[in-house]
């Protein structure tokens, strides 16, 4: 039985896709918006309140996230509801936020009291 070897260096296509995703997630407001949407469907006004940002700015962030395929929309009358349901993105953000807890010293010493769980 032959096993596929582990890719030691990512190919250009996948490395570029990862860099583009990280670039998109380099904005703290977008991280907060995406994390909120991974936990349920929300509209712009509710998201703006949750992340303490201007609704216009939230709309612009949502547009970028939607174009990248990280959030979906559902229209109900004049309201647009946003959601995110990507297991890969959920794991990525969960690990990144857990890492942030450790680097900032806010995680418990035993590692069992993480505030960010998928």
UniProtKB/TrEMBL annotation:
<keyword id="KW-0804">Transcription</keyword>
<dbReference type="InterPro" id="IPR011991">
    <property type="entry name" value="ArsR-like_HTH"/>
</dbReference>
<dbReference type="InterPro" id="IPR036388">
    <property type="entry name" value="WH-like_DNA-bd_sf"/>
</dbReference>
<dbReference type="GO" id="GO:0003677">
    <property type="term" value="F:DNA binding"/>
</dbReference>
<protein>
    <submittedName>
        <fullName>DNA-binding transcriptional regulator, ArsR family</fullName>
    </submittedName>
</protein>
<keyword id="KW-0805">Transcription regulation</keyword>
<dbReference type="GO" id="GO:0003700">
    <property type="term" value="F:DNA-binding transcription factor activity"/>
</dbReference>
<dbReference type="InterPro" id="IPR001845">
    <property type="entry name" value="HTH_ArsR_DNA-bd_dom"/>
</dbReference>
<dbReference type="Pfam" id="PF01022">
    <property type="entry name" value="HTH_5"/>
</dbReference>
<feature type="domain" description="HTH arsR-type">
    <location>
        <begin position="10"/>
        <end position="104"/>
    </location>
</feature>
<feature type="region of interest" description="Disordered">
    <location>
        <begin position="99"/>
        <end position="118"/>
    </location>
</feature>
<dbReference type="InterPro" id="IPR051011">
    <property type="entry name" value="Metal_resp_trans_reg"/>
</dbReference>
<keyword id="KW-0238">DNA-binding</keyword>
<dbReference type="InterPro" id="IPR036390">
    <property type="entry name" value="WH_DNA-bd_sf"/>
</dbReference>
């Amino acid at each position: 039985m032959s096993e596929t070897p582990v890719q030691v260096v990512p190919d250009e296509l996948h490395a570029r896709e990862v860099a583009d995703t990280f670039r998109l997630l380099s904005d703290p407001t977008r991280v907060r918006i995406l994390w909120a949407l991974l936990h349920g469907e929300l509209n712009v006004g509710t998201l703006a309140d949750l992340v303490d940002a201007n609704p216009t700015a939230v709309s612009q962030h949502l547009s970028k996230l939607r174009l990248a395929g990280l959030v979906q929309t559902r229209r109900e009358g004049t309201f647009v509801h946003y959601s995110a349901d990507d297991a890969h993105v959920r794991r990525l953000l969960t690990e990144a936020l857990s890492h942030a807890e450790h680097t900032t010293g806010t995680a418990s010493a035993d590692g069992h009291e993480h505030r960010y769980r998928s």
